[in-house]
Design a protein that fits this description.
Helix content: 40-55%
Number of helices: 11
CATH superfamily of the largest domain: Response regulator
Distance between the termini: 76 Å
Largest sheet: 6 strands, parallel
Strand content: 15-25%
Number of domains: 2
Number of strands: 12
Mean pLDDT: 93
Structural class: alpha/beta
CATH topology of the largest domain: Rossmann fold
Shape: elongated
CATH class of the largest domain: Alpha Beta
Bound molecules: beta-D-glucopyranose
Order of helices and strands: HEHEHEHEHEHEHEHEHEHEHEE
């Protein structure tokens, strides 16, 4: 009899474990072929290893598909969702739905509206302040031009006291694209620099699109820009590829690197600091970038998911949580110097 009841208890607990998976977290990402998201997702996967079981799904850049994936994860009794929304305005419906099911959610990288964040107390956001990246990018460029707005150095190639600039913008409506584009210009103006923005074009964070966009800009027949400011590294790399093909970077001694003092090149600045761009900085093609600190973001996201699973996001939580909802990760400048 005693053995029979031990068996019954064992069987029941195995059944319970099967029907409601323990520590199951879903990670939804707007698309798979985004250079920055690749680094961030890799790090989230590494951080979750051994802590909780993580089910990663990519949403093919479609909010409809992402909503279906959310429904599937609800059905599979996922306990916490980590979501990089396709459409950040879609967060309203997502929060309402997850509140009904009592599934806490951590948004990241694409920031929902404040009013949507406030629909429920089990909603968090992990990200970075886009203003900071725009300002840091402008600071890197100002240093390159000699740090004196009234006397630009040799990088003002036509010596007109102004910087002819191309801006490559990320995805329309994404907070990082809108704010970085505006803030980088504001920072120059505030510091007294005159910049002529010869083009601001959207290339959706994408390397190939930026290649084509830059090609069109060069084809307009204007003089090559004195500066290219890109909202992210992937687009910066696309712009560099076409400019290299057009001979605007010339590795005259053929050593595979740009010697900036005596070879022809155009300063291009990105944002993100992904490994691919660090390589290009080392080779002298990308002038610099602003590090969008994905390793720290991944650590904060994983730690938060774990604390939610344990049912305690309290004062001991290792990252500062603003207004009970926001974890902000600082950007850092990155150049070879
Ligand atoms: C990054 C971009 C990335 C985008 C995706 C931005 O914060 O800087 O590289 O494509 O997020 O949402």
């Amino acid at each position: 009899m005693k053995y029979l009841s031990i068996w019954v208890v064992l069987v029941l607990s195995v059944l319970a474990a099967c029907s409601s998976p323990r520590n199951s977290v879903g990670l939804l990402v707007y698309r798979e072929d985004d250079l920055f998201m690749r680094s961030l997702v890799n790090d989230i996967q590494k951080e979750s290893d051994g802590q909780f079981s993580l089910d990663t799904r990519f949403s093919l850049n479609s909010q409809v598909i992402q909503n279906e994936q959310i429904e599937n994860l609800i059905r599979e009794e996922t306990q916490v969702l980590i979501i990089n929304p396709v459409d950040r305005l879609g967060a309203y419906a997502v929060v309402k739905r997850l509140k009904m099911e009592n599934i806490p959610v951590i948004f990241f990288n694409r920031e929902p509206l404040r009013s949507d964040m406030e629909l429920w107390d089990q909603v968090w956001y992990v990200g970075a302040k886009a203003e900071q990246s725009g300002r840091m990018q402008a600071e890197l460029a100002m240093e390159l031009f000699g740090s004196d707005p009234d006397s630009l150095n040799e990088f003002d190639r036509n010596d007109d006291g102004r910087i002819q600039t191309v801006i490559l913008k990320g995805e329309q409506g994404h907070q990082d694209a809108e704010i970085r584009t505006a803030m980088v210009q504001t920072a120059f103006q505030e510091a007294g620099y005159s910049i002529d923005v010869i083009a601001v074009e959207t290339a959706n964070w994408n390397r190939n699109e930026a290649y084509e966009t830059m090609e069109e800009i060069l084809d307009r027949g204007v003089n090559p820009p004195e500066l290219v400011l890109s909202n992210n590294d992937a687009m910066a790399l696309g712009a560099i590829s076409i400019m290299r093909q057009r001979g605007l970077f010339s590795d005259t001694n053929g050593n595979g690197k740009m010697e900036r003092t005596d070879e022809e090149w155009i300063p291009v600045l990105g944002i993100d600091g992904v490994p691919e761009s660090v390589e290009q900085i080392e080779a002298g093609y990308l002038y610099g970038t602003v590090h969008n600190d994905y390793s720290t973001m991944a650590k904060a996201i994983a730690a938060l998911a774990e604390s939610i699973l344990e049912g305690r996001v309290d004062d001991d939580f290792p990252y500062e949580i603003i207004d009970g909802k926001y974890i902000w990760v600082d950007y850092k400048t990155f150049t070879l110097d």
